[in-house]
Amino acid sequence: MENIKVRKIGNSIGIILPKESGLQVGDLLGYKQDGKKLILDAQNVGREHDKRLIESSFEDFSNGNIHLEEDMKKKFEKYGWGSVNV
Q1: Which of 9, 51, 66, 84 is 20 to 30 A from 76 via CA?
Q2: How many other CB atoms sit within 10 Å of the CB of residue 35?
Q3: Distance of CA 24 to the CA centre of its chain
């Protein structure tokens, strides 16, 4: 087990997690305290990230940024769009 230093951040305290944790800015961790043990739960982080990604993709619709497949075929046919029949 590695140690993580608790630091003063403004009027609070916090920790800095290593990049290898796979967490991103804005991720929400669950936590609970069990005696002297603090348990961080990242189980829902992936789901929350996907939820934010899906919600941001729907912003395109409300902004009128909609592209039909036929338009995409015309624009990108030189790159092979639509050339593969499935």
Answers
A1: 51
A2: 5
A3: 7
Entry field: residues in the chain: 86
Please report, for residues 17, 48, 53, 85, the alpha-carbon distance to residue 20 in angstroms, rounded to integers and kept in the order given. 8, 19, 21, 40
The encoded tokens of residue 31 equal 């936590």
The domain tally of the chain equals 2
Q: Is 11 part of a structural domain of the chain? A: yes
- 29 and 52 housed in the same domain: no
User: Same structural domain for residues 11 and 37?
Assistant: yes
pTM of the model: 0.47
